[in-house]
Specification:
The chain is α+β, with helices and mostly antiparallel strands. The protein folds into two domains: 61 residues, no CATH class; 46 residues. It contains six helices and four strands; from the N terminus they run βααβαααββα. A two-stranded antiparallel sheet has the order 1-2. Strands 3-4 form a two-stranded antiparallel ribbon. α1 crosses α2.
Length: 121
């Protein structure tokens, strides 16, 4: 199987839309192991996606799955109907918008998924 590549903690933090310290905590809690590359610690994208709940991501979607995740509080900005942040927080809480629980206090939404479900909530 072809590898999707790897990323440093700073890139993962950007992807998860968190600070680097929080990213390190999530990585540690998720028991992600760095690659064998020398230099800065790097983590395989496939392991990152597995931690996010995706068992297998085909090459076709690698670019979309590397995009920064959205905070539930940001979703209303992407809404053409201009619904409130509170409405979107409720959609995420009840599962109408699929989300990723990175930790007990960090929940995110994948942009490519949001772009599809926004028309159905």
């Amino acid at each position: 199987m072809e590898e999707a590549g790897s990323a440093r903690v700073s890139r993962i933090a950007d992807h998860w839309n968190v600070c680097e310290n929080t990213a390190r905590e999530i990585i540690d809690e998720g028991n992600l192991r760095p690659t064998k590359e020398s230099g800065w610690k790097r983590y395989l994208w496939q392991d990152i996606w597995r931690l996010e709940g995706e068992v297998f991501v085909t090459r076709r979607y690698w670019r979309d799955y590397r995009e920064p995740l959205l905070k539930p509080s940001e979703l209303h900005r992407e809404d053409p109907e201009k619904r409130s942040a509170r409405t979107f927080r409720r959609y995420v809480e009840r599962g109408a918008i699929p989300s990723i629980d990175l930790s007990p206090t960090v929940r995110r939404v994948r942009r490519c998924v949001f772009d599809i479900v926004i028309h159905h909530v």
